[in-house]
Amino acid sequence: MGAYLMLSNLTDEGAETIKKNAARIKEVNKEVEAWGAKILVQYAVLGPFDFATILEAPSAEVVARVSIELGARGSVKIQTLPLIPIDTFIASMKP
Predict the structure, then answer these.
(1) What is the pLDDT of residues 13-53, one digit of tens each?
(2) Sequence spans of domains, the chain
(3) CA distance 94 to 2
(4) Dihedral sign for Cα atoms in the order 70, 71, 72, 75
């Protein structure tokens, strides 16, 4: 399983939805898990992004599907970054 950092920003429509029903976030998380990804931790963020989510998935294709499915709703814009465990990174630097 690979780890990914999903950074997201709500659109105006998404912000309105969250304002009316903040628990919607947990409902969406269940959908993400039904698509094959597992949410490890999620934060609301103050700054250039609204949310940061760390998730695991069996492949980049699964994460791409999550991103497309959520983005197609028009309520969120997503940037997803693959994460490399630090021990793996250090091992890859050895000659």
Answers:
(1) 999 999 999 999 999 999 999 999 999 999 999 999 999 99
(2) 2-92
(3) 22
(4) positive
Is the CB of residue 36 less than 8 Å from the CB of residue 62? yes
The pTM assigned to this predicted structure is 0.90
pLDDT band, very low/low/confident/very high, at 64 (cuts 50, 70, 90): very high
* Cβ 18 vs Cβ 10: under 8 Å: yes
Residues 6+ positions from 15 with CB-CB distance below 8 Å: none
User: Which class would CATH give 2-92?
Assistant: alpha beta
Q: Which phi and psi (to 5°) does residue 79 adopt?
A: -120, 130
